[in-house]
């Protein structure tokens, strides 16, 4: 594992002095030419810039030295299981993050003192060379010759721009950041002066009771968190911040608490700024933040975001392509659990052999619903690897592991885009953003110019909408879906491993069954008190942190523009005053916003977007649907390893793809949870009691392959989501691995069906220039044996771009 716990990086001692020497030489060379061509301008001197860089470096080294001498460790020991410390565990740092943050702070200091333009005049290549010495970016020579398997760090996915979407890179910006000083200080009110404190915003707007969505289940909330952890992780370093110190610094931005406050008597809440990141081109400019995981939908929360993490998680002793597991020591079925995280000493557990679980993402044990999903996909990988070993006994450990990983990631992508996103965004967004899949065609819409990098607003605000969906408790049900076990309060579940081993109350399986029945809170601007007053509290129920306030403060820390600015970016009408939003927000919200903010342009994007009325047939409002939809559009069209892809050695065969399309979340749960007798076919919707109208479809797999799910109102006409036995592989099909058998015979019946579809589609295109019928795929889906002019053009553009990239490569890298 590459998690750091305070050890001083070797790079700080060895590489940086070399970088300073190189930077000095570059600055000296560029400085002389700058004086010749730009004499009228005031150019900073070499000594002055060098002193600035050295000052930043010394400061960073001093912080490390103080920590290593024991001060930091004593503070850590004193705050064990405190809310602040558990929050630090949630935002745990990788050692590479600290190394890149040092480069970012050097760039930030230079930008603040001299300005971006002057640095560019002195030496435009100085900071990129510093980034290169720190190992920030990859080059073409780092990419493997074979492009069949994803790299764990996400690099080389794009063969033209090899750093796009990789781990340990900055979030991308859809809109330039809004910092008061243009670099890193918090934005101000448009009327001058500070914005209302984040705690005031939370207390005035977010503290109310839940309303529930009819017919939706709570697994949506847990699945959304599991998905979020595949896409984003911005670390922070809390060693500089003291919860009793309300002073701001370069690292601390405490949340001030106006008194009297209904929950907190202290003057402020500790808040640590996210670690800065160099820009992707390593040029000076406003502060960027680092994403510690890959941007791609690649199961990094299961496998990790580096080769070292993946190797650490693998069970190489057995040699069967497996992930490491812990055999459940208390369950009679002995089903595998996540292996123990020996480094996480702060989970609540009863015995030393029962600790927090270890996964590809360090947040796996944050709450038991999240742990349950991690456990299901761990078991899924190992089950597929075991079956592949039977189908192809000649395959070695690496081949079994990588092929099982390919299948799990493809299945994961399919579930996200076929079940979760349609439920969340509704039909309108699916169509407008090209997110809808196709039951038989292959995908040809990959574009090297599409940047799939996770956007700052998505990670920091938009995809935190799920915090409004978190319930007050976990229902725990037996195999017959009866609530025979006591409910588990959310405030008692944070980093609490004891519930995983609580067989007396059903363990993880009772929580999974509860997710399939428990109603889903609406995205309505309300967050439970367990999160706004008791987050990470110890003891449970005591005062903790305010997640709503922290979300608002995080948006300001990252320089996110206001809610009104994002409305305009999404093509929505910009509000001139609060009354312009009366029809956008739920009843009574305008009064709360007027009481909190001085101007409509001051509204933070987080509270504004989650307060919107949902779109027709969706769970979120138009601003959230816009930001989330565009992000997932980029994740689909900008991923060379997208599971439906038609071209390249990484593509699945038609028969393999058709098997992956059978996978549903219901089947994942049936096969990998203990004691699942029955389940509804679409787990994100509550089970229906009646069998539905005569002839109603019970299989979501078959229904989705024949209908446009959902309809404009978010409903499924003609579908009966009744519980069926898990043994019913007709209603809930099971993936077959026969197409992965070496020299497998193609399925001729599916090929002939494809040709019939091809003939029909070709006939449509040969007619006059009319919009094709709704049952025909858009241009980015290719039916077998047919290629439209648009597809040919896209394919040619890709080939031309790769050729131009190869021509730009240095000769010694060929």
UniProtKB/TrEMBL annotation:
Location of the region described as Disordered in the Swiss-Prot/TrEMBL record: 791-814
EC annotation from Swiss-Prot or TrEMBL: 1.11.1.7
GO biological process assignments: response to oxidative stress
Keyword hit for Heme: yes
GO molecular function: heme binding; lactoperoxidase activity; metal ion binding
Chain residues that bind heme b: 467
Protein name (record): Ovoperoxidase
Native organism taxonomy: Eukaryota, Metazoa, Echinodermata, Eleutherozoa, Echinozoa
């Amino acid at each position: 594992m590459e998690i750091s716990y305070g050890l001083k990086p070797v790079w700080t001692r060895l590489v940086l002095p070399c970088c300073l020497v190189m930077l000095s030489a570059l600055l000296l060379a560029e400085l002389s030419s700058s004086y010749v061509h730009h004499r009228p301008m005031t150019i900073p001197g070499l000594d002055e810039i060098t002193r600035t860089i050295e000052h930043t470096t010394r400061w960073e080294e001093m912080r490390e030295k103080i920590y290593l001498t024991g001060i930091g460790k004593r503070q850590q020991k004193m705050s064990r299981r405190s809310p602040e410390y558990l929050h630090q565990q949630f935002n745990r740092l990788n050692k590479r993050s600290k190394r890149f943050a040092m480069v970012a702070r050097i760039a930030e200091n230079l930008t603040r003192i001299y300005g971006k333009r002057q640095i560019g005049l002195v030496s435009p290549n100085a900071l990129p060379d510093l980034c290169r010495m720190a190992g920030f970016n990859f080059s073409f020579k780092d990419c493997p010759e074979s492009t069949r398997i994803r790299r764990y760090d996400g690099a080389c996915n794009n063969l033209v721009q090899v750093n796009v979407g990789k781990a340990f890179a900055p979030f991308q910006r859809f809109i330039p950041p809004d910092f008061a000083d243009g670099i890193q200080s918090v934005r101000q009110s448009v009327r001058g002066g500070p914005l209302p404190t984040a705690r005031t915003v939370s207390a005035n707007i977010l503290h109310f009771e839940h309303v529930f969505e009819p017919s939706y289940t709570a697994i949506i909330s847990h699945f959304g968190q599991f998905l979020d952890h595949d896409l984003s992780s911005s670390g922070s370093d809390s060693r500089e911040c003291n919860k009793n110190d309300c002073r701001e610094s370069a690292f601390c931005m405490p949340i001030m608490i106006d008194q009297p406050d209904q929950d907190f008597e202290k003057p402020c809440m500790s808040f640590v700024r996210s670690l800065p990141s160099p820009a992707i081109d390593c040029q000076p400019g406003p502060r960027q933040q680092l994403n510690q995981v890959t941007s791609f939908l690649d199961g990094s929360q299961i496998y990790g975001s580096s080769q070292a993490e993946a190797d650490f998680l693998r069970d190489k002793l057995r040699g069967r392509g497996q992930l490491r597991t812990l055999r459940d020591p208390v369950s009679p079925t002995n089903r595998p659990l996540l292996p123990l995280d020996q480094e996480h000493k702060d989970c609540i557990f009863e015995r030393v052999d029962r600790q927090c679980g270890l996964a590809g993402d360090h947040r796996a044990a944050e709450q038991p619903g999240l742990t349950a999903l991690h456990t299901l996909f761990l078991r899924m990988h190992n089950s597929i690897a075991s079956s592949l070993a039977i189908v192809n006994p000649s395959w070695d450990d690496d081949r079994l592991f990588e092929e099982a990983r390919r299948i799990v990631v493809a299945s994961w992508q399919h579930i996200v885009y076929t079940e979760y996103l349609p439920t969340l965004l509704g039909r309108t967004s699916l169509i407008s953003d090209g997110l809808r899949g196709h039951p038989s065609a292959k995908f040809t819409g990959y574009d090297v110019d599409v940047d799939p990098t996770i956007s700052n607003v998505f990670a920091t605000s938009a995809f935190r909408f799920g915090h409004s969906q978190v319930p007050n408790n976990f229902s725990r049900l037996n195999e017959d879906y009866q609530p025979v076990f006591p409910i588990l309060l959310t405030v008692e579940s944070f980093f609490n491993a004891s519930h995983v081993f609580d067989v007396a109350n059903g363990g993880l399986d009772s929580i999974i069954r509860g997710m399939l029945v428990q109603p889903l809170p609406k995205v309505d601007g309300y967050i439970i008190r367990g999160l706004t007053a008791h987050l990470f509290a110890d003891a449970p129920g005591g005062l903790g942190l305010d997640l709503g306030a922290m979300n608002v403060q995080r948006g300001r820390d990252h320089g996110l523009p206001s809610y009104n600015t994002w409305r305009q970016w999404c093509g929505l009408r910009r509000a001139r005053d609060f009354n312009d939003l009366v029809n956008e927000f739920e009843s009574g919200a305008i009064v709360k916003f007027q009481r909190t903010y001085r101007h409509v342009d001051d509204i933070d994007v987080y509270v504004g977007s989650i307060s919107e009325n949902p779109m027709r047939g969706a769970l979120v409002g138009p601003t959230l649907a816009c930001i989330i939809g565009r992000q997932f559009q980029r994740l689909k069209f900008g991923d060379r390893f997208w599971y439906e892809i038609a071209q390249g050695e990484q593509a699945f065969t038609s028969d393999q793809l058709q098997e992956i399309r059978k996978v549903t979340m219901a089947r994942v749960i049936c096969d990998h949870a203990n004691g699942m007798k029955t389940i509804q076919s679409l787990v994100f919707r509550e089970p229906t009691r009646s069998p539905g109208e005569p002839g109603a479809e019970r299989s979501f797999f078959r229904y989705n392959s024949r209908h446009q799910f959902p309809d404009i109102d978010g409903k499924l006409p003609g579908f009966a989501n009744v519980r069926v036995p898990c043994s019913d592989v007709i209603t809930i099909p099971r993936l077959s691995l026969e197409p992965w058998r070496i020299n497998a015979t193609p399925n001729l019946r599916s090929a002939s069906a494809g040709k019939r579809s091809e003939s029909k589609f070709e006939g449509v295109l040969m007619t006059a220039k009319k919009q094709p019928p709704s049952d025909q795929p858009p241009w980015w889906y290719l039916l077998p044996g047919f290629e439209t002019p648009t597809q040919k053009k896209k394919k040619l553009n890709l080939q031309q771009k790769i050729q131009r990239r190869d021509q730009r490569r240095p000769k010694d890298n060929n």
